[in-house]
Structure formats: structure tokens, C-alpha cells
Design goal:
Blueprint: E1 5-8, H1 15-23, E2 28-31, H2 43-60, E3 63-68, H3 82-103, E4 107-112, H4 135-148, E5 154-159, E6 162-163, H5 170-178, E7 184-187, E8 191-192, E9 195-196, H6 197-212, E10 221-223, E11 230-231, H7 232-242, E12 250-253, H8 273-277, H9 286-297
Parallel strand pairs: 1-2, 1-3, 3-4, 4-5, 5-10, 6-9, 7-12
Antiparallel strand pairs: 8-11
Helix pairs in contact: 1-6, 2-3, 3-4
Length: 298
Amino acid sequence: MLVRLTVLVPGGSGQLGQDLAALASPDVDVVAPGSAELDVTQAGQVLAAVGALADRAREAGAAPVVVNAAAYTAVDAAEKDEERAFAVNADGPRVLAAACASRRVPLIHVSTDYVFSGEASSPYESSDELGPRSAYGRTKAAGEDAVLGSGASSWVVRTAWLYGHAGSNFVKTMARLESSRDTLSVVDDQVGGPTWTADLAAGLLELAARVAAGDGPERRILHCTNAGAVSWCGFAQAIFKHLGADPSRVHPCTSAEYPQEATRPAYSVLSPASWKETWLTPMRPWDEALDAYFAAAE
């Protein structure tokens, strides 16, 4: 059943938020405020925004849904500023979920592979035990708990290694370094699932339509990444190939050779089973998504 949607996207100025607004079909009204317009840590702002969403949807004869793309994503900075990361990644979702519960608005909350320890050797299922090893991961795990325990009609969607045409990301960094360095070293002992924000946005909008139609999945935690797995080094080599550069200019190194403030998961591939079991459209392989990303940029 086709249901008209009115969607509020906190974090709308980020790469995912911009794609959610850009990809919405004509029967989906997206309001995507950035953090300057809607600070999810401010209860008054959140209550007003969710209330306005509910009223706007009612006046339009549409169903309201919130897709929370707001997050503190500076992984290394969070190690020294966990209080601020917690405010955005845990307190913010708690406030948002409470507002959604009070106005009976469904909430879809975007989370991350960093909630896992990274010690697995096979893709993480949505029901697997959490074990974050960084401040960022801990605060995102707390955000999941806040949303799922709020009483709101809510879903958590974990994703990973996001890149898009807006904002800064690994793909853009590699493109910049390719033009300024003869060679570069990239870690080869961290494996995950690169995900184009346009593909994730399409999946989230499909889920929102299902939720609005009263057909939301029984499973409350879902994994949504482009299919397959690759190391950061392998991903960088694929990016170089798309840039017309020699992939052998990217040299593998270990995490120990490239120390960072925050511990990264060594293996954070997310299983697609939870997404497929809900009959949502399967995500295409990461290399096909990268092809489409570069084709769209031409």
C-alpha cells in the first residue's frame, strides 16, 4: 500500500542526510535540518521539531517518520571528548525517542559497526553481543539502548564505512592524496563493508515507507551495508583504479604502523541477513556501488 510520508531527518546537512533529502520521491516530504537548526541534545528544540512534523503530516494527510542521521562521528576526537560524543550519540537519541513516543511518531535510528569489538571472523549478525572498543562505539551503543528502551516505535539500522558526494570521507581523501603523493600506505588489517550513502538512503526510505504503512519489521535491529567485504587498503586501491591511477601506488601497512587515538575494529563486516529477512531490497556489492558513485560524479 502506497502511503504518503513526511520525514524529519536530524543531521540533514551531513552526507547521509543530504542523500535522504535528494533521493526522496515526490510523495515523500523530507525536512532535513542541520545541527545549527536542530540540536538533538536540546529537548525543547527536539519536542518542537517532532511536534511540527506530526502536525505537518496530519495537515497533508501523510504519515510522519523520523530518520535520525545526527551523530558525533569524529572517532579519534571522541577519545578526548567522550562527554560531547555521549551528548550527541546517546543523550540526543534518548531525547528524540522520548519526543517520538509522546507524539506516536516512528523512529529509525542510524548506528554503526563500531558497537562491535571487531574480533569476529565472520559477519556480525544484528543479534550478536556488543563490545565497543572506542569512545565513539560506546556512545553509539548507548544511543541504541536509549532508542530501543524508550517505548517509541523504533528501529536501529547499523551501517559502516560511509562515503558520499557531500562532506568529507575516505573516498575523497584518497582522491586528494592520489593527486599529491607518489605512493601512500593504507592499513590492510581492518576489514569492513564500504557503503555509499545514496544506497543506504534508498534503503532507509524504503524502510520508512514500510513503517509508515504499518508493515515495519518485527526485528528491531537491522544491518544495512553494501554487500561484501574489503580492507581499507583494498578499498583505496579500487578508488585509485577509478581515478585512472595505478593501484600499486597504494601500499599495505598494519594498524600498528598507523597508530590512531581510537581503536578501530579489525573486522566489522555486518551480515545482511536481518535486512534480507524483512524483504527489504538487498544492497548491491560494494564495488558496484563504488562504480555507481564515480559514474554519478561524472
